[in-house]
Specification:
Strand content: 35-45%
Number of helices: 2
Distance between the termini: 38 Å
Oligomer: single chain
Helix content: 10-25%
Order of helices and strands: EEHEEEHEEEEE
Structural class: alpha+beta
Number of strands: 10
Mean pLDDT: 89
């Protein structure tokens, strides 16, 4: 299914992230069959990762924008299928390329995530980009995120 224009208030019902850890302003497009999603984050001065000495957030934090976009796609897909929501854990961030070290406050980050690989055991790989400026321009950060989807986070508890 394709769609878009999911604003912040509805996203808050999809994602477990709250308060300053919530790093998406809106979803602008998604396709659950092609397993892709486009989102935006208007970087505010009260962003969790904002550094006043820099006037923005270091670009390496883009992996979290990417991860939350992947989470939004997963939850949209689960709702569409009538399945219970699941938790996702980042297993790795690889092939990260940072072409601009700073994401200035007041700018909009355009995030694109595209599933590259899915396994039956709940492991997924996504190719991700973050662009600045008007829409999906030239990527300033790109990475591959490996995600594991789980029903119960207790598998990570010591001794489990």
């Amino acid at each position: 299914m394709t769609g878009g224009n999911i604003e912040r208030e509805e996203l808050l019902t999809l994602l477990p992230h709250k308060g300053k850890m919530f790093l998406l302003s809106r979803v602008t497009a998604y396709d659950t069959l092609k397993r892709s999603l486009d989102a935006e984050y208007e970087i505010p001065e009260d962003c969790l990762f904002y550094d006043p000495a820099l006037g923005g957030a270091p670009a390496w934090v883009s992996f979290e924008f990417m991860a939350q976009s992947i989470s939004a796609l997963a939850e949209i897909t689960h709702r569409e299928k009538g399945e219970p929501l699941k938790m996702g854990c980042i297993l790795s961030v690889s092939n990260m390329e940072i072409r601009r070290p700073l994401l200035k406050a007041g700018t909009t980050a355009y995030i694109h995530v595209q599933e590259d690989y899915a396994a039956d055991d709940g492991i997924f790989a996504f190719n991700c980009t973050v662009s600045l400026g008007t829409g999906a321009g030239t990527a300033v950060v790109s990475a591959k995120l490996m995600i594991m989807e789980v029903d119960d986070l207790s598998i990570f508890e010591k001794g489990a």
